[in-house]
Amino acid sequence: MAGTQTEGLDDLPPSAKLVFKVLEYNGPLTQKGIVQESMLSARTVRYALERLEGIDVVDEDVYFADARQNLYKLTEPAQEFTSEDRDASCTAD
């Protein structure tokens, strides 16, 4: 996608932020697991994952228990960013 270099987590739609939080709280999940945890539609989850992958905060890996599915997890820098971002928002209030 063009322009995703300057796009951050704050610029994403609410569904993508929810998927990010689901992965943050639950760890790596398949798309089906994200759908169950977030209660979003499969199509919305797919779109959210595309957006999150576009800004390099989510990695897609092979799910060895069922090779037809992928396993999605947060990248390490994304986890560090969110904790710093949370600390900054606490001190700003």
List keywords for this structure.
Arc Repressor Mutant, subunit A, 4 helices, disordered N terminus, three-stranded antiparallel β-sheet, globular, 93 residues, alpha+beta, 3 strands
Number of helices: 4
What is the percent of helical residues? 40-55%
Which architecture per CATH?
Answer: Orthogonal Bundle
CATH topology: Arc Repressor Mutant, subunit A
Question: What is the class in the CATH system?
Answer: Mainly Alpha
Number of structural domains: 1
Tell me the strand order in the biggest sheet.
Answer: 1-3-2
Q: Class by helix and strand content?
A: alpha+beta
How much strand content do the residues show?
5-15%
| Uncertain segments | 1-5
Q: What do we call the CATH homologous superfamily?
A: Winged helix-like DNA-binding domain superfamily/Winged helix DNA-binding domain
| Count of strand segments | 3
> Which oligomerization state do the chains in this entry correspond to?
single chain
- Order of helix and strand elements from N to C terminus: HEHHEEH
Would you tell me the overall average pLDDT? 82
CA-CA gap between termini: 35 Å
Main sheet, how many strands, which sense, barrel? 3 strands, antiparallel
What's the Cα radius of gyration? 14 Å
- Overall form: globular
